[in-house]
Amino acid sequence: AIEKTFVMVKPDGVQRGLIGEIVSRFERKGLKLVGAKLMSVSQQLAEQHYAEHKERPFFGELVQFITSSPVFAMVWEGENAVSVARTMMGKTNPAESAPGTIRGDFGLTIGMNIIHGSDSPESADREIALWFGNEALSYDKAVD
Ligand code: CMP
């Protein structure tokens, strides 16, 4: 099915100048970019985004990191976009992510692993609503 997925270049990826590389990989794969913005993340947005990890020992560190400098938030659309994007990103732990994946090629530690992508269509819906609200997400129609 045609899906939308939420993908975010984390502060480490932005600081290392990897936005273009990452956008390019998704474009060449054939996914369509339907929303994107460079933005600072508030404490509240970070805590909502990572709500499922609230009880984990690394939660504080995670929120601290994601709010430390701007992220590049995106929505990509296409056939099976959620799982396709996950495959392209590689495993969460860069030690286990295969070469050829984004984390496999550019990441070294689990905390600073460059990129986030929704883990299911349900998460994608929730995350797109959280990060893009009612902003128009489209590439084939003029919007005002
Ligand atoms: P992400 O896909 O953004 O979702 C949750 C994040 O928690 C994950 O990527 C990791 O970057 C981060 N994280 C930090 N420390 C750990 C850890 N010890 N185990 C799992 N995830 C961690």
UniProtKB/TrEMBL annotation:
Chief location: cytoplasm
Binding site for ATP: 10, 58, 86, 92, 103, 113
Keyword check for Transmembrane helix: no
InterPro entries on file: NDK-like_dom, NDK-like_dom_sf, Nucleoside_diP_kinase, Nucleoside_diP_kinase_AS
Residues annotated as domain Nucleoside diphosphate kinase-like: 2-139
Reaction catalyzed: a 2'-deoxyribonucleoside 5'-diphosphate + ATP = a 2'-deoxyribonucleoside 5'-triphosphate + ADP; a ribonucleoside 5'-diphosphate + ATP = a ribonucleoside 5'-triphosphate + ADP
Recorded superkingdom: Bacteria
A Pfam match: NDK
Cofactor(s) needed by this chain: Mg(2+)
Entry's EC annotation: 2.7.4.6
Compartment list: Cytoplasm
Family annotation (SMART domains): NDK
Family annotation (PROSITE patterns): NDPK, NDPK_LIKE
MF GO annotations: nucleoside diphosphate kinase activity
Summary of the function given for this chain in its UniProt record: Major role in the synthesis of nucleoside triphosphates other than ATP. The ATP gamma phosphate is transferred to the NDP beta phosphate via a ping-pong mechanism, using a phosphorylated active-site intermediate.
Protein family (similarity comment): Belongs to the NDK family.
PANTHER family registered for this protein in UniProt: NUCLEOSIDE DIPHOSPHATE KINASE (PTHR11349)
Full protein name: Nucleoside diphosphate kinase
Lineage: Bacteria, Bacillati, Bacillota, Bacilli, Bacillales
